[in-house]
Amino acid sequence: MTQTRSATSKSQVAYDWIRDRIRSGAFGPGYRLVLATLASELEMSVVPVREAVSHLTAEGLVTFERNIGARVAMVDASQYLVSMEVIIVIESAATALAAPRLTRADLMRARELNAVMREGLADFDPRLFSNLNQEFHHTLYARCPNPRLLAMVEGEWTRLGHLRDSIFGFVPRRPRESVCEHDALVDLIEVGAELDVIEHAVREHRTGSLTAFRTNHHVAEGA
What we know:
- By secondary structure, the chain is mainly alpha-helical.
- The protein has helices at 2-24, 35-42, 46-58, 77-98, 104-119, 126-141, 147-160, 163-166, 174-190, 195-217, and strands at 32-33, 62-65, 69-72.
- It folds into 2 domains: 2-72, Winged helix-like DNA-binding domain superfamily/Winged helix DNA-binding domain (Arc Repressor Mutant, subunit A, Orthogonal Bundle); 77-217, GntR ligand-binding domain-like (Four Helix Bundle (Hemerythrin (Met), subunit A)), CATH 1.20.120.
- A hairpin with a 3-residue loop joins β2 and β3 (69-72).
- The protein is elongated.
């Protein structure tokens, strides 16, 4: 029984360790996961590492091919594009509806988050930047008075899963542009701009990231 618990614990340690490196971008898309090498780094046998990789494969973070082995899953461009096309529309609307209800504290929080994102550009961490970016936008749309629209926005971001945590690693010039656009967006909300102006600004901002992704992945329009 003790041996079983120990094996389970080691498998969880390996799972957390590998997953953290995938989400941080240290193990990027296509990175080959050599079990023996990982086991050596973790100072454990191959068995719990194999179990961890199997778990990650079931979650879609890792793929396995015969004669090649385990690799970090590549970006599913079609999934990202489809979800982002939906998010661009509904999040823009949700942010515009939320704008009149945002408090001074909300806007201060948004600016604080953006300041941290700007400071992080010098030593860029895609996962951290993406998480801060999500929190920034959530701060601006969370007060949307339409619960169904809000649920749709949250649902689409959930659908993207782990992909949303690493996407900025695939669009290297986009983060710097993004923080500047964030400042402009908060400025519009603070001065009480018309809702359609705010909605358009959010849509343009999100479209910029989508365009950058398409360009870097040579994805054709309509894909």
